[in-house]
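User: Hey, my collaborator sent me this sequence without any context and asked if I could get a structure. I don't really work with proteins. Can you help?
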Amino acid sequence: MGEAIAILSGKGGTGKTSVCAGLSTALAQDGKKVLCLDCDVGLRNLDISLGLEQAPALSFLDVSQGGYTLEQAAAHPDFPGLFFLTAPMNCPAGAIDPAAFGEMLHTARERFDYVLLDAPAGIDAGFHLAAAYADRILLVTGPDPAAVRDACRTGEQLELMGKIGVRLIVNRVDSDLIYAMNLTVDDVMDRSGLPLLGIVPEDYNVTLAAAFSKPLLSYTKRGAAAACCRIAKRIEGYPVPIALR
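Assistant: No problem. I've predicted the 3D structure and written it out in structure-token form, which is a compact way to encode the shape of the chain:
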């Protein structure tokens, strides 16, 4: 049986979607069978980070409503074992049938090693939909005070939902800026109250890869790409040290 992992953030601008894409491709690169779902009904753009902007893709609503099957999810041309369902258009998250969504995820767990859910930022209906059915939750934050405060509040909301074992990913970390702010990643952990799963450095290659319609791991093996590979190994259970570079 596979595992459903929700990638969440308390606010926009943390790079949650690029992290989700990086982890999905890294897990597939490791030989895992991965289904990646864009659950951001309002602002779907996971396809860009995956390099699938021009590829036709079913929405997860098409599958959960029974019109299509998981076998018809879009297959990634560069990463065998990686499949993608986009977010539906013109359908608010509150109108999605939670039971049907949950049943689809149950079936997906039987057919994939990992199901990654890229949830919308904030704590609205899309957040609750993804979090409710996830086996594991990764909370993405930036190192700045506002992002950390929102991560703390999001963690509290998840605790109220009965979610345990939430792990923190600190993204877009600029070592020079952190030094100037006299801030450490331990400080971020202390302020958020969440254990750390990984650190991802600020990396202009994330933007360049998207601009050239390439997955980050196809564009470079360094920086944020290497960080996502390390985090993917820790998701798989390997004791890989946490490092910025």
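In plain terms: Residues 145-160 form the longest helix (16 residues). You can pass these tokens on to your collaborator as they are.
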